[in-house]
Write a structure and sequence with these properties.
The structure is a homodimer.
Chain A (H helix, E strand, L loop, with lengths): L15 H10 L9 E3 L6 E3 L5 E10 L11 H17 L4 E11 L5 H17 L3 E9 L5 E10 L15 E5 L4 H18 L11 H8 L5 H10 L5 E5 L3 H12 L1 E6 L7 H10 L3 H7 L5 E6 L4 H4 L5 E9 L4 E4 L5 E3 L13
Parallel strand pairs in A: 4-5, 9-12
Antiparallel strand pairs in A: 1-2, 3-6, 4-6, 7-10, 7-11, 8-10, 9-11, 12-13
Helix pairs in contact in A: 2-3, 4-5
Organism (chains A, B): Ichthyenterobacterium magnum
Pfam family, one (chains A, B): AIRS
GO molecular function (chains A, B): ATP binding; magnesium ion binding; thiamine-phosphate kinase activity
């Protein structure tokens, strides 16, 4: 559909595992002093001296997390890195290294994997991270990508999920729901394409939401911004499963409640118009859509003057005592309990 | 075949991703001071102070790396950890943490995953490592396990693949080829079982080689032994793809050649008898069989007195100038070039 299928096609079989790793990673350079040894031994060797390190990992499975009929491989490589960096930034850390393992079936050509790694390389360049290891193996079916990301920070900068206090402000970066609505548009176009392969879709109206789905950016800029503003959040989490489930994580781990204001949730105009077109409630999408990769944090009221003028940060509610519970305050001013529908990849499966 | 199929069966669908992770990891305790924060946030937080850290990762895919018709899930969980720890020990490091991600289809029950995690927990206990993170997601087909292992060591203790020097001794731990022959026996029994499911196989004759396949141990003891003997290898690698391909890795990266003596390669009597039964040459199996998870190292001749009496270490050859090439010296004293057939999971696929 989007991908150009008329490419040269080199079979993987004769290249072998060692040749393949060497080939795919030969352009990857080392940027960090903390990377003592990258790809090429039994393990990478890292040196963080007095810094703390953070480690996070995610698995991406074809036809569960992505659909190659509309996800170009280069974008997929980029997104696989973003998904993991987002978790590093949610600790308020600086991302430094990743390992990338892939399993592929023989239906993938060398050129296809080169596209995937071009996306990984682009992400590594833009986000200044070293690719220090990985594993390349065969799969009996689709494509599987496993990324582990490592970051560094000083002890005093670590932000956990469990530090929110009553009266803290609930703050979110960027806008929400776009990635999910982008997915709805792509799914609809896939169905149209099945019926009429000659149809050339005009997706200009949906450019922002499709980009949010296919090429999300992790909020490295926010970690720097918070430092520049001299604000340390009391808690932080990245929004991968939808705002609602992430708020619940923070509240449960911090033993607090919250009031979230529906009319404060930041939505892009394209999300609003596409929700109208699909006859879906935009608040439901922002709460449960997932894959936004924005950051949700709580900030002490004292820090409000430092953040109030910043277009990247939106106050969407405040933290309460645990006994008050977790609520959405609707536009009609009724208080309804927050539920984590989230994006549950296990129950989504059937 | 080996696994007990008559178990309680709780469906994964209603449990959800968060419930599943919590449930499976609730018994995992933290043993290392370097683990500041384990499972439960966007990322684990680690603190290695002045130590260097090593990071390695591996993907295990159902029907590529394991066959559940004879691999009990508990053993599989154990083996998934061993495969990664082996790489940590091959750097001469102390393994400290792992992350474990799994993707499962709905054909797996909660009880099946509990078995898998029981194996992971057993490995973590015995090898004194902390499970600090992971991801649990659905798969459209089989079981996928991705493990990242982390270890620590002092800078002066790091052993790379590239430090072998001419006249160094080529030394291997344990014995070789058993895991591969264990696999051959299990594959044969699987075929017998297909024809006659009532057949109760007598596998006593093959107990050692089957255990080497189903429940390998990574050589943590060797890292300690080398320290106790005050021996630092000049190079080291773990034997996952077969002796031949690992020797070639060391020689290529160290820019040296080698003479490997066929009559010195350590073989267990069960490997020899099973090779005879299967009419396979045991040297070929030791060279190319794979999955031994022993360590191959090069040691300076000066250190020979320290290792010569040790039953865990066998001298199998010596390093030569690069121009001499890499050779196997056969029992008949002819010198034939070493070739890396190895265990190539990409070309093995078809």
């Amino acid at each position: 559909m989007i991908e150009d299928k008329n490419q040269q096609r080199t079979s993987l079989e004769n290249l072998g595992e060692f040749g393949l790793i060497d080939h795919l990673t030969k352009n990857f350079d080392i940027k960090h002093k903390s990377t003592v040894k990258g790809i090429g031994d039994d393990a990478a060797v890292l040196d963080f001296k007095s810094k703390k390190i953070v480690v996070t990992t995610d698995l991406l499975i074809e036809n569960v997390h992505f659909d190659l009929s509309y996800m170009p491989l280069k974008h997929l490589g980029y997104k696989a890195i973003m998904v993991n960096l987002s978790d590093v930034f949610a600790m308020n850390a600086n991302a430094t290294q990743v390992t990338v393992s892939i399993a592929v079936s023989n239906r993938f050509s060398l050129e296809a994997l080169e596209d995937l790694y071009a996306g990984i390389e682009t992400a590594a360049k833009i986000y200044n991270i070293d690719v220090v290891g990985g594993d390349t193996t065969s799969s009996t079916t689709g494509l599987i990508i496993s990324v582990t990301a490592i970051g560094e920070l000083n002890e005093e900068d670590i932000v956990y999920r469990n530090g929110a206090k009553p009266n803290d402000l609930l703050v979110v970066t960027g806008d929400l729901g776009a990635a999910y609505m982008g997915l709805q548009v792509l799914e609809r176009e896939k169905e149209v394409f099945k019926v009429n392969p000659q149809n050339q879709p005009d997706l200009d109206l949906y450019s922002y939401i499709i980009e949010r789905q296919l090429k999300p950016e992790a909020r490295q800029d926010i970690v720097k911004l918070l430092k520049d503003l001299d604000v340390k959040p009391t808690s932080m989490i990245d929004i991968s499963d939808g705002l609602s489930s992430e708020i619940i994580h923070i509240c449960k781990q911090s033993k607090v409640g919250c009031d979230l204001y529906e009319n404060k949730i930041p939505l892009d105009p394209q999300v609003i118009s596409t929700c109208e077109e699909f006859k879906i409630d935009s608040t439901t999408i922002a709460l449960n859509g997932g894959e936004d990769y924005e950051l949700l944090m709580t900030i002490s009221q004292e820090d409000f003057p430092k953040i109030k003028a910043n277009p990247n940060l939106t106050v969407i509610g405040f933290i309460t005592e645990e006994s008050r519970g977790m609520h959405l305050v609707t536009r009609g001013e009724s208080r309804i309990p927050l539920i984590a529908k989230g994006w549950n990849s296990l129950s989504d499966q059937e």
